[in-house]
Design brief:
NAD, about 15% strand, NAD(P)-bd_dom_sf, elongated, five-stranded parallel sheet, alpha/beta
Length: about 325
């Protein structure tokens, strides 16, 4: 274990907590000074583990690192890693699914409430010298008369659903993997996605980004929603077709949006979303708290430490891979 090299391909977080965690376990830790395929392949030629934030890790790059046994993602989503290619090569892939559950759920509910109660419009009106309670935009709802549709009932989606239900909203949940009894136990109603879209006054997204979910909310989905509905996304930007969303905001088909994630990040200075009406934008910040910032790199490093020690790693997302020289004592991540 002392001879194992772990490479951090890229990381824009402050500090060196990941490296310190690895070194404390007797592993060698190296951070790539630049995130290019050639540099990563050069530095990672002997690497048994990678810690990845944003760099794309595909099969061709994996093939240039013949000793690689695990890839650990700095974050919950892992769409930048070709998991199928990793599985074919016997490489474990893990994420860090629990470091910011409370933060993202709280941020989501905050965005929902800001739009549901017209807080942005109220604030701007007061600053202009106006004092009109009945001028809320896009809405000022009574929760018990308002339907929130939650797409995805995993760690974060279920917490959002319970929080909204606790505030008195009617909550619909669309998730083919969530047992109906679990959804009902939370006081929510299990439905198919078509019903969730059609009934939503407010739609919030909590599903992973895959080939099947890319542009899940497109022009057709928007057309199926109520006129004036609100869309909230703190999950992955490409779940929404931003061109279709901008058009729907301008023509009033969608009443408002609250977005923390975008198809391209950072959001470009000339992005059409910046000029769309009734949009609340935050800079992929839903995950952030000082505690989450501290936990994230440590959790990513601990995945590798435990895996190379032959211990159980609950965060592995491809437990059915053909194992390459490592313990198979792993469990799939729970949704």
């Amino acid at each position: 274990m002392a001879e194992s090299l772990i490479l951090l391909t890229d990381c824009d977080l402050p500090g060196d907590a990941a490296e310190r965690t690895l070194r404390a376990a007797g592993l060698r830790a190296v951070r790539a000074p630049e995130a290019t395929d050639d540099r990563i392949a050069e530095l990672g030629a002997e690497a048994e583990g990678l810690i990845v934030q944003w760099h794309r890790i595909d099969g061709a790059l994996m093939d240039r690192m013949p000793r690689l046994r695990m890839i650990s993602r700095l974050g919950i989503g892992y769409d930048m890693i070709d998991v199928a290619a990793a599985s074919e090569r016997g490489i474990a892939v893990a994420n860090t699914p629990s470091y910011c559950i409370e933060e993202v759920a709280a941020h989501t509910v905050a965005l929902i409430m800001a739009q549901a109660r017209g807080l942005l419009a109220y604030d701007r009106a007061v600053r202009r010298g106006e004092w009109r309670a009945v001028a809320a935009q896009p809405m000022a709802v009574r929760p018990s008369r308002t339907t929130i549709s939650v797409l995805g009932f995993g760690r974060i989606g279920s917490l959002v659903a319970r929080g909204c239900r606790g505030l008195g909203f009617r909550v619909l949940v669309a998730d083919p993997y969530a047992p109906d009894e679990a959804v009902r136990a939370a006081g929510c109603e299990p439905v198919a996605i078509d019903e969730a879209l059609a009934e939503a006054d407010i739609l919030t997204l909590h599903v992973p980004l895959t080939a099947d979910t890319r542009h899940l909310v497109d022009a057709a989905a928007i057309a199926a929603m109520k006129p004036g509905a609100v869309i909230v996304n703190t999950c992955r930007g490409p779940l929404i077709d931003e061109t279709a969303l901008v058009a729907a905001l301008h023509d009033g088909r969608i009443g408002a949006a609250a977005l923390d994630v975008f198809e391209e990040e950072p959001l470009a200075a000339g992005a059409a979303l910046r000029d769309a009406p009734n949009v609340l934008l935050t800079p992929h910040a839903a995950w952030y708290s000082p505690e989450a910032l501290q936990d994230l790199p440590v959790h990513a490093a601990e995945n590798i430490v435990r895996f190379l020690a032959g211990e159980r790693v609950d965060a592995i997302v491809n437990p059915d891979r053909a194992v390459r020289g490592a313990s198979a004592d792993v469990a799939p991540t729970s949704r």
